Amino acid sequence: MKTVFHLISKKNAAAICTGMMLFFLLPYPAIANDGNIIRLVQDPWPPITSEKISGEGLATDIVTKAFRIAGYDPKVETIPWKRALVMVETLKSDAIVAAYHNDDRAQKFDYSLPYLVTPILFLKRRETNISYNSLEDLRNVRIGIIRSASNGNEFDQADFLNKIELSNPSVIIRMLYYGRVDIAPFTNVVGMHLINTRFSQWSDEFEFFGRPLAVLRYYLIIGKAHPKKDTILKDFNMAIMEMKSDGTIQEIIAAHNLMNAFPRENFNLR
Fold first, then answer.
1. Cβ-Cβ contacts under 8 Å for 229 (sequence gap 6 or more)
2. What is the pLDDT of residues 73-91, one digit of tens each?
């Protein structure tokens, strides 16, 4: 009996050890990291966010600088937009670098103070004869949009529009050029940067038109379930206010040669 009990105990011990090893090998959410590491995700949206340009994009440059001022060690990963939303909502990452505000998203995420302000305009081929005074005028127009991206509450909630969801901005530019969509919403800085860097052979083919579809602000967003969200947002907001006050944000914008896209008078934190 003593021998059997001894063998059972050894088996139990082995099982317990195996279970503990598997537990510690399981992936932890971002919030479990020790120290002041803050794990950020962004989608490729140059020149705002991009791992291929200086500072990983204008917004990323501002956000990572703010976190360093606040005493954090920011780590940035570039992934598709829809995955970024899931990663932050499920606490596998801490925050998304740059997002617009919309009502649906606000149910799942908390927002920082805005740190950039930019208008959204419709882009079209110059030869396309389209104008509008209200979104109702665009009922029969094919509009290319990025899947899961926001273009302001009015546009997002206009279910009567013919919105064609596409995977990324480059696909939209190609669809515009080849006439498979008629117009597409872009911020002027993103649209022109994309055309001038990726499609320079078509640079004279496109134009922005009409009144701004929306004036949008860029925010850092963090999942409502994140246990440290209040502290992170407070620290980040204080750093952003400091950077606005001492001119650091304007210096970063100038370093990216984007002053014309983000004039000082359009920058406010309300």
1. 110, 222, 223
2. 999 999 999 999 999 999 9
pLDDT tens profile 171-191: 999 999 999 999 999 988 888
CA Rg, the chain, in Å? Answer: 23
Structure-token match 């909630």, residue found: 157
pLDDT at residue 26 greater than cutoff 70:
no
Task: Write out the DSSP string of 183-234.
Answer: EEEEEHHHHHHHHHHH-GGGTTSEEEEEEEEEEEEEEEEEETT-TTHHHHHH
How many Å apart are CA 57 and CA 140, to the nearest integer?
A: 36
CB 211 within 8 A of CB 135: no
Per CATH, which fold does 30-117+217-266 belong to? D-Maltodextrin-Binding Protein; domain 2 (3.40.190)
